[in-house]
Amino acid sequence: MHKGDGYSEGSTAGTAPSSPVPVALRRVLDLVVSGEATSRAEISRRSGLARSTVGQQVDHLVARGILQELESRESVRGRPPRVLTISPQAGTIAVADIDTLSSQVAIADLTQRVIAHETVDVRIDAGPKAVLDAVTERLSSLLAKHGRDPGRVRETVVGLPGPVDFQHGCAVRPTGMPGWDSYPVAEHLRTAFRCPVVVDNDVNLMALGEAGQAEADTPLLCIKIASGIGAGIVTANGDVYRGADGAAGDIGHIRAVGGGDVLCACGNIGCVGALASHRAILRSLGIPESTGEDPLHGAHELALRVANSDPPALHALRQAATEIGEVVAMLVHMFNPRTLVLGGPLSELRDDLLSGVRAVVYQRALPLATRKLTITTTQLGAAAGIHGGIALATRDIFSPPGIARLLASDPT
Predict the structure, then answer these.
(1) Fewer CB atoms inside 10 A, N or C side of the chain?
(2) pLDDT tens for residues 11-51?
(3) Do 114 and 28 belong together in one domain?
(4) Residues 368, 268: one domain?
(5) Nearest residue to 163 via CA among 265, 238, 282
(6) What is the rounded distance in angstroms from the CA atom of residue 24 to the CA atom of residue 36?
């Protein structure tokens, strides 16, 4: 698997070297993981492998606890057919989607079934050690509570709300994240769980989560409007486009059409994130982002004012939608996505935000780029990053290097 597909030598360094995976075994496992084949006969037919070869590989994978073979529940005459699936006990995926005010954590099995999902209320400005220790403690607690062996965590995925060096597993000069610059996030989690760790931008994970939904067509462009504004791009073949250094999608620092001399946290003036982010709207309306009693006070208060048709709130939201729409129209021309998803706290105010962005995109972008474009808000909400992290981990685990690590692990 190419590094752009999610496998990263840098972010998974420290794992034991693995032997090459036999082609026949990989083909068998690929067909079961993808759902293209669920029985030995189907695998043989689709792969062109001899039944005896398929039988040997399936028996090996079942013995290793990676596959399970169960009797089908379908009502048929004679002997019930046997169905092959990934074993729920083959291993666990741990995911942490870290945001400015709190973090989402979850554990899942290798079938991508979410076993448990919780919120950790630690602000990102508490620093990387405090946040990552809290995340580690909660993930460890979930593993223990649900009877998952910590020694069989196959991969940990972490999403960060800032620029990420994907190869080295750390944030790079993020704004509003004191202490996080170059902090070894991957190494911190690898020490705790002793498994490969992937660190990615939170919007990339959100985009992967949304791209995995049944009605989402790719290429997909996901825009997260929160404390800043970022974009995640999933290509037609399901890869995340990260750019040469992982900086792709950091659109919050594009100069806004009406940016004027508004100062951004990056030191420049007129950035769209400084003008149209959720945080910028709250600041313009004098609404605190959080309080001691309610970490999400700002989101709740803004939603209430919009629901009550408060003129300043409606004007601020519509102006932000216009500024975001201008940038999005440019991205639509550049990437020609099939689906555009708006996420983050502002996406909950979908009518005003969606209509404003749509109006600008359809006005500014040429018909060829928009004739089949779907513009919508997130289907998964705050859980999008979690689902994207699980999808990324699963793809890594069933890549050739990941399969080799699975086969090298203790089968019991």
Answers:
(1) C
(2) 544 455 456 889 999 999 999 999 999 999 999 999 999 99
(3) no
(4) yes
(5) 265
(6) 16
390 touches 97 (CB < 8 A) = no
Q: Residue 193 belongs to what domain range? A: 92-206+385-408
The model's pTM is 0.91
What distance in Å separates the CA atoms of residue 103 and residue 295, rounded to the nearest whole number? Answer: 12
The two three-digit tokens of residue 215, written as one number: 């009605």
Domain boundary among 51, 71, 86: 86
Where does a domain end: 39, 63, 86? Answer: 86
CB 385 within 8 A of CB 392: no
Identify the CATH number of the domain in which residue 50 sits: 1.10.10.10
Torsion of CA 331, 334, 340, 345, to 10 degrees: -20
Q: In this structure, are 369 and 394 located in the same domain? A: no
Q: What is the CATH number of the domain that holds 335?
A: 3.30.420.40
